[in-house]
Amino acid sequence: MDMNVFIQTIPKAELHLHIEGTLEPETLFRMSERNGISIKYDSVDALRQAYRFDNLQSFLDIYYEGAGVLQNETDFYELTWEYLLKAKAQNIRHVEIFFDPQTHTERGIAFETVINGIFNALSEGSRDLNISFCLIMCFLRHLPESDAMETLSQALDFKDKITGVGLDSSEAGHPPSKFKRVFEKARKQGFLTVAHAGEEGPPEYIWEALQDLKVQRIDHGVRALEDKSLIKELKNRRIPLTVCPLSNIKLCVFKTIREHNFKKLFDQGLCVTVNSDDPAYFGGYVVENYLALQNAFQLTRDDIAQIAVNSFNAAFISQDKKDMFIDQIKKFAAE
Ligand code: HPA
Ligand code: ZN
Predict the structure, then answer these.
(1) Ligand nearest to the CA of 17
(2) Which of 56, 67, 253, 299 is the most buried (most CB within 10 A)?
(3) What pLDDT does 253 receive?
(4) H helices within 202-318, ranges in order?
(5) Closest by Cα among 257, 254, 207, 252 to 227
C-alpha cells in the first residue's frame, strides 16, 4: 500500500481542533451573504490571500473576525457538519472538538445557540458517520478570569454535553495561573481539563498548566523540549501533547517543517499526537499534517501507526474503546 493511502485510511483520532477554525472561505462567504454580515474581502481568493500570518496574534485577529458570520444554530450546525464530512473522508473515528463560547456570547449570540448547533451535528455524525466525539469548551485567556467564570456558569446548564474545559487564544502574557480558580471550579463540577501551553509561551507555562490547572493533556507543548526536567515529568506522568505541525509553521513557531521538533519529541517516547488546530486557516486537515511530517522526517509505517495509537491513548474515552480502536490499527497495519 502506498504511504499516502496508508495515512489516509489508518484509523485516527483528532484531539486538537477548534471548530471555528474549520470555517472554510467558501462557507464564510455563504454565511456572510445569508446573514447580511459584510466582510472586508471581495472574494474567496482575496480572503485566502489574507491567510499569511507572522505569529499567533496575527492569526487570531482574522480568525475572530471570520467567526463573526456565525449567527444562528444552523450556522453552527453546518460548520460542524462540513468538518465531520472531511473527517470521515480521512477515516477519523473519534474527534474532540474545542469551541470558544466567549467569541460568540461577546457578540450577543446565546450560549445555547452555539452549543446546540455544534452538538446536534456531532450527534448526527456519531449516528450516521460513525465518528464518536466529545466537546471541550475553551476559555479565552486574553479576557479576565471573571469572564471565564461567567462562561463556566452558563455551561453548567449543558454539563451533559461538555466533557472538558480548555484554554486558548493569545498565550504570551496570559499564563495558565491566571485561570487557576476557574479550572478548580470546573474540575469540582466534573470537567476534564486541558490547556494550550508552550506554543509561543515558555516551558514555565506548561508547568503551570500541569500544577495550577491540573490538566490531563497539553495542547501544542512544543516548547517543552527546552526543559529537560519538564520532559521527564511529561514522560513519567504520560501526559500527551496534541501537536499541530502545519499550524506551527503557519504561525512561525518553526520556520520550516524540517525544523519542527516533532521527531525529537516522538523519539523521546512522549505520547505525541498529530492534529490540525484550525485547518481552514492553516492549509490542511489531519492527513495533510501526518503527510507533512512523514515527508520531512521519513517516518515509517510503524511510526505512523504509533502516532495513530497515541491519538486514541490520549483521547477522553474508556479503556475498552481505546483497546478496540488500537486493535483495529494493529490489524490494519499488519495487512
Ligand atoms: N492557539 C491559541 N488559540 C487558538 C489557536 C491556537 O493555535 N487556534 C484557535 N485559537
Ligand atoms: Zn489550538
Answers:
(1) 2
(2) 56
(3) 98
(4) 203-211, 228-236, 245-250, 262-267, 279-282, 286-297, 301-313
(5) 207
Q: What value does the CA radius of gyration of the chain take, rounded to a whole number of Å? A: 19
**CA distance to 113, 180, 227, 228, 304, per residue, from 149 (Å):** 19, 11, 32, 34, 40
Give, for ligand 1, the residue of 199, 222, 246, 276 to mutate: max count of ligand atoms closer than 8 Å to Cβ: 199
DSSP code, position 188: H
Q: Give the tens place of pLDDT for each residue, 95-150.
A: 999 999 999 999 999 999 999 999 999 999 999 999 999 999 999 999 999 999 99
Is 106 tagged catalytic? Answer: no
Of 73, 96, 171, 199, catalytic: 199
Residue 97: strand pairing partners: 17, 135
- For strands 12-18 and 241-243, give the pairing: unpaired
Residue 194 pLDDT: 99
Mark the ranges of the chain whose per-residue pLDDT is less than 70.
Answer: none
* pLDDT value at residue 75: 98
Domain ranges of the chain: 3-334
Separation of alpha carbons 326 and 146, rounded Å: 41
Residues measured by CB to lie within 5 Å of ligand 2, the ion: 277
pTM given for the model: 0.98
Residues 222 and 198 sit within 8 Å (Cβ to Cβ): yes
- Strand pairing class (12-18; 217-220): unpaired
N-term to C-term CA, the chain: 9
Q: Which atom of ligand 1 is nearest to the CA of 278?
A: 8
Contacts with 320 (C-beta within 8 Å, 6 or more apart), sequence order:
none
| pLDDT for the residue numbered 1 | 81
Beta bridge partners of 45: none
Does the structural domain 3-334 have CATH classification 3.40.1830.10? no
Of 32, 126, 38, nearest in space to 80 by CA: 126
Q: Are 127 and 74 in contact (CB under 8 A)?
A: no
